[in-house]
Amino acid sequence: MSASLFQRLAARPGSIPALTVLALVALTALAAPLLPLPAPDAMRPALASRPPSVSWTEWTDLDQQHLEETHPAGAWARQALFGKHSLSGLAGTDDLGRDLASRLVWGARISLLVGMAATLVAMIIGVSWGLVAGLSSRRMDGAMMRLVDIAYAVPFLFVVILLIAMLRGGPSAEQGMAGPDRLVLMFVAIGAISWLTMARVVRGQVLSLRRSEYVVAARALGATTGRIARSHILPNLYGLIVVYLTLTVPRVMLFEAFLSYLGLGVEPPGVSWGILASEGMATLTAVGTSWWLVVFPGLALTLTLGSLNALGDALRDALDPRLTRG
Amino acid sequence: MAGLSILSSRPTLSRADLAFCNQSEIGSLDPAIASGSSEGRLLGSLFEGLTRANPDGGSPLPGVAEAWECSSDGLTWRFSLRPDARWSDGTPVTAEDFVFSWLRLLEPHTAARYAYLLWSIEGAQEYTTGGAGSPEGLAPEGMASDGDAPGGDPSERSPPGAESPENIAAEALRRQAVAIEATGLHELQLTLKRPCPYLPQLASYHPLAPVQRACLERHGEDWIKPGKLVGNGAFVLAERRLRDRIRLVRNDFYWDAAKVALATVDIFSVEATTTQLNMYLTGLVDWMVKPPPALYDVLLNQPDAHTGPQLGTSFLRFNVRRPPLGERRVRRALALALDTESLARNIMRGGESPVDSLIPPGLPGYDPASMGPSDPEAARQLLTEAGFPGGNGLPVLELLYPHTAATADFCAAVAETWRRELGLSIRLVNQAFEVYLDSTISGRYDVSWGSWIGDYLDPSTFLEAFLSGSGNNRTGWADPVYDELVGRAAGLSDSAERATLYRQAEQRLLDDAPIAPLFQRRNIQLVSPRVQGFVDNLLDVHPLRDLAVSGPPP
Amino acid sequence: MIRFLARRLLASLVVLAVVVTTCFFLMRLMPGGPFDLEQSPDPVIRANLLAAYDLDAPMHEQFARYVEGLLRRGDLGPSLRYRDYDVSEILAESLPVSLVLGGSALVLALVFGLGAGALAAARRGSAIDTAIMSLAGLGLALPSFVVAGVLVLLFAFHWQLFPVVGFGSPAQLVLPAVSLAMPFAATIARLFRAGLLEVLAEDWIRTARAKGRSPLAVLWIHAARPASIPVVSYLGPAIAGVLSGSLVIESIFAIPGVGTHFVESALNADYNLALGVVIVYTVLLTVANLAVDLAYNLIDPRMDDGLGGGAADEAVPRRGVAAP
Predict the structure, then answer these.
(1) What are the extents of the domains in chain B?
(2) Which secondary structure element, helix H or strand E, spans residue B440, and what is its range?
(3) What is the domain extent for residue A81?
């Protein structure tokens, strides 16, 4: 299945570029500690608000310290590769002299992490729910989906905001929660918003698969529900799930940007694309704008999310041969 | 569409003579309850106290009171009110109005935050705190309404609690004992239990403004709505649209109405700074408070930027209760390691000047104490002496701050400085403002961002915040000698003596370093050149009655 | 139909009750109360404040009183932050504003989304199709505040066509409504296009074509109705999204709607206002979902999974895929 699926996928226009872009973004994000860029939170007020340029600068102790704190192995490797030099100002600097290119690259790590983790949470909850509902008796199914209907009416956004505002209460030492843990809770909160659609879709698919010839036959031959789920239903769900994952990640990342705009997202000195976009927005006024602060984060978001969307569409088309006709 | 009909039901207002952006939507128009700088900017225009703010920030000018005098021991004050002072419904303002209003401010029921401003008056503190100091013993007084309604103005609700006749009688007695008296139709007399030389300053502040009893009685909790509100200020309330704007119109009954140049004033309550800036740049408003710090470089060079020192300082608080911050040398080391000069210049960039004291310079008759200049070498020495050479052995310290852009960047820079100079590990903790406040109040922090803005031109407004029992201290620092010095100074009426004692107290504070002074805060605003009479001053007061505009709006 | 409605109403009331209760207690568990400011009031004054607003009573008592007030008098309580206002007054002032903004945005989203989707489907594979779908991709990839900012920069500053901020005149509504509508228009365009393409591939369309109907007529008359099913089922989440997205838009354009009260009340610990907004929001969502499901039934009575709804928010192949 995989080979022909990939072929069909490759045939869709836009899917190869999308995959390429995504691979590049992912690689850059992974390689962030190794890249010859200044530290993302190193402030150099003397270089504030510079438009993009290319220049080599000195890699300072500040930069070294940041890297050592966050990624010791990378620090060593980088030292070996680039020594004391870094390429700065590639995307310009912000009003405190922080290098935008570096912030974009490090921000990609957080944004992608949040996107994938939250989506994973949504997937786990949603798929399990939909699977169980689809395979259960009609009453159970009805009850489960009614809960989903009810959940649809809950203003989750509000609850998430409450949750996050609550989680900020009290220094982390007190509650035994460090910064990264708070991030995890944010994943869960965002993921908890997004699972509903996945549940509905999976359930719908499971229901129709149940009626398919294979399943009916398997049942007639005495297979248990578990066996049916494993061998007949789940494999047919993978495609659907992948499509949905690809399409949910952009929504989650946009939500992270939204939260960052409200000040409820990632905390400084952490950086994410959402923070960069909202920081850029703050300089967008009629008085001299730092266009690079808006354009580059915007481009990053557009390219990545757009590619994800395109890929998701292509996958969906590839999975459903009917649409390729006519 | 139905939508468009809704649009038309709220008529678009024309451009007012003067329009400005207030920082945020105000909490309340009731001068006794309101608290916050946004309220301060407009309440003085609706309600005028015995004195009024001086547009150049100096000594207060006569308001409702034409003249006042104080006895030589500083304990008896007499205010002579002008006979032509009127409410906006034409009725005269009398001394009885002030007695009523000030008692209302002190009344426990009102739960007025600024009731303490009058606590130098004999009997006042006991009245507010109910003598026993607990609210359960309080009974309703004055206007009562539906007992268990969850709504309603707090000054008219009866609290669920004891309402025994003894309590009611006791409270009435305490009210009688408050030494505020109308000795004539236009004569007000106060007897203080300790001198308060800055009382005329306090009298210009909105909590001490008068409210009209008849208006409150007639309208109940709705009295502050447009069309109902009766005030004695230079302006009356024409319209109020929540989160949109408040419109004021000139009060023709105001005693000095002839000198008030503005006919209409619009006060917008937009919160997003970028939006406010856009409104200013497109001429929708003439005055904007607090432009976005990210644009200081561009904005502050223009002629319409008004910047000036503020009566406030920013500092870091050390939680003295948490080791190793209980150790004085550690605190001083942290304070001295900071190069406040470069931090203020490079990060804040609003022209803030570094200070090494709690009280900023500029208070008339007072010279602030001094902690000493930045000295990283001495800081390292102190750390070594305290048993932490090179920062070894110190735990990870948390630096707490509320979420604003400037604060975040500043604290990050502070953390970096400590890392670099002292070898410390710092974790930055960022919280929403209310949560951050709660954390500092309940002592859940190691080091925290802090600031203090003085209410009036006297050192006590700063120093009293750090008394052992003060809720504004929040560091856990307690020094009985400091308390004694401040307490003693409060009882003196000679300003030179008071200044000496206050300075000693401040020096003790700085030597012990429960705080690390950072910089003097700055008033930064954008004011269109068409606005006249706008004078930058320490207290940042700009009474609307003294402003004028030239030329038509853009 | 009546039974269906009755069941849904009952479910909605349950939802409302659960939501209100949860949020009530959730808010009060948050650190920080509504009366904190940089200057802490004297402890006695603070106690007085709390007593005046009932906040010193035990939580279940507060809850009982709140529910009683709500059910007996429809009283949502006083706002703890805007001390001159009751929650109902605030909502009465701000809700119409948000409804106008949201309504305009939805209308714009539908008009542009359906139009663009139809155009793209009709010109499938052409440059127009690619252009429209790319634009839609852009609309989905950018946060609304970035879009709003760029629009303001271009149309309010650079070309000075529209006012920068405010609410009251139709001109002031354009930029906010467009910014708000963008992501939804994009999704609707994609959904409608996909739906149309799916329907157009069906046998009965070919029959209609064979009968000699013109392509345009074919498209709109026959295909539009079933193709709009995914759009209709998207309306539910779209309405929810519009209401929440308006938060940022209202802030940027200084529009005095409910959205800003949403976040403010949570962060300011204005319990009563927060609950009031939650209630309003839940009611709106429920009504919207109900309306959507009714419309769904009207358009396609074939769907009978017993819940009158439940389709995905993106068109998914509803038939099974080939077995492995």
Answers:
(1) 27-149+178-216, 309-522
(2) helix B433-441
(3) 36-98
Pick the CATH number of B309-522 from 3.90.1150.10, 1.20.120.450, 3.10.105.10, 3.10.150.10: 3.10.105.10
Which single residue is written with the structure tokens 């649209």?
B241
For B19-35, what is the HEC assignment? EEECCCCCCCCCCCCCC
Report the alpha-carbon distance of residue B391 to residue B380 in Å, rounded.
Answer: 8
Total-model pTM = 0.77
CB contact under 8 A, B294 and A170: no
The residue ranges of DSSP E strands in B53-178, in sequence order, are 61-62, 65-70, 76-81
Closest-CA distance of chain A to residue B431, Å: 6
CB atoms within 10 A of CB B157: 25
Which residues is B549 bridged to in the sheet? B531
pLDDT for res A274: 86
What is d(CA C317, CA C251) in angstroms, rounded to the nearest whole number? Answer: 39
Q: Name chain A's partners: 3 or more CB pairs within 8 A.
A: B, C
B439 close contact with A: CB closer than 8 A: yes
pLDDT in tens, B468-515: 888 788 899 999 999 999 989 988 878 889 999 999 999 999 999 999
Pairing of the two strands B515-527 and B353-354? antiparallel
Exposed/middle/buried for residue B273 (C-beta within 10 Å: 0-12, 13-18, 19+): buried
Q: Which two tokens stand for residue B297?
A: 């470089």
Q: Are residues A193 and A310 in the same domain?
A: yes
Q: Which residue in chain B has the smallest CA separation from C77?
A: B151
Do A170 and B439 make contact, defined as CB atoms within 8 angstroms? yes
Which residue blocks in chain A are alpha helix, DSSP H?
A: 2-11, 15-30, 61-70, 72-82, 100-135, 138-153, 156-167, 172-175, 179-210, 213-220, 225-228, 234-261, 273-282, 291-319
As a whole number, mean pLDDT of residues B310-314 equals 92
CA distance A284 to A297: 13
Interchain CB distance below 8 Å, C320 and A157: no
Question: Residues A89, A203: one domain?
Answer: no
Amino acid identity, position C311: A
Domains contained in chain C, CATH given: 90-319 (1.10.3720.10)
A91, A163: one domain: no
Question: Are A157 and A62 members of one domain?
Answer: no
The strand pairing partners of B189, in sequence order, are B78, B181
Q: Could you count the other beta carbons within 10 Å of the beta carbon of residue B369?
A: 20
Between A62, A168, A279, which is nearest B432 by CB? A168
Say what the pLDDT of residue B163 is.
60
- State whether ipTM is beyond 0.90: no
Is there a contact between A49 and A93 (Cβ–Cβ < 8 Å)?
yes
| pLDDT tens per residue, range C258-297 | 887 877 777 677 778 888 888 888 888 888 877 877 777 7
Residue pLDDT tens, chain A, 326 long: 466 667 777 777 778 888 888 899 999 888 887 777 777 776 666 666 777 777 766 666 656 666 666 676 766 777 677 766 677 778 888 876 788 888 899 899 888 988 888 888 888 888 888 888 888 888 888 888 878 877 776 777 767 776 666 655 433 333 333 455 667 777 777 777 778 878 888 888 888 777 777 777 877 887 777 777 777 777 777 777 888 888 788 888 888 888 888 777 776 667 888 888 888 877 777 666 677 888 888 888 888 988 888 888 788 777 765 433 32
State the CB neighbour count (10 A cutoff) for residue A172.
17
User: Between chains, do A159 and C138 touch, taking CB under 8 Å as contact?
Assistant: no
Question: Residue holding tokens 């989506």?
Answer: A119
> Helices A291-319 & C144-151, crossing angle to 10 degrees?
130
pLDDT-based confidence at residue C302 (cuts at 50, 70, 90): low
Give whole-number Cα distances, A182 to A164, A167, B417, in Å.
Answer: 9, 7, 26
Distance, CA of B61 to CA of B53 (rounded, Å): 6
